[in-house]
Amino acid sequence: MTIWTPTLDPTLPRYRALAEAIRLDIASGLLKEDERLPPQRRLADALGVTIGTVTRGYAEAERHGLVRARVGSGTYVNAPVSAGPVPDRRFGHALRARPSFGIAAESDDSLSASSGVMDLTMSLPPPHPARQQGMAAALTAISHSPEAIGAECRIPE
Description:
two-stranded antiparallel ribbon
């Protein structure tokens, strides 16, 4: 069992911040496949949150395929779905829009149309490896060449 204690993103609800920390630490290699996460009670004590928050965070991570729970045995890390780059924490939760695992941010009034940020993760079904890789490739292509969007997407007049 690991002595892993995550740093929670204060801009997210705690359970979502826990799921996001799991995702980031898997992507960075800090958490390895089949590694056992701390028991819920121990992690709740370490983070200063309720056991319900940790239970919900682990459930959110499991829903997104990050971990698997074995009754009576613990919660274990799944293999990363893609080997994409780890998102940069400096850009805020909207730009870390969870492309690797589909964890979407809660609604945020600061993300207006004028901000130029479009969060497409809210309408995606649970992630599938092939879908995730295709979406990651498409988003990478768009980020490197925004003018490509105009050639592919026509808005009717």
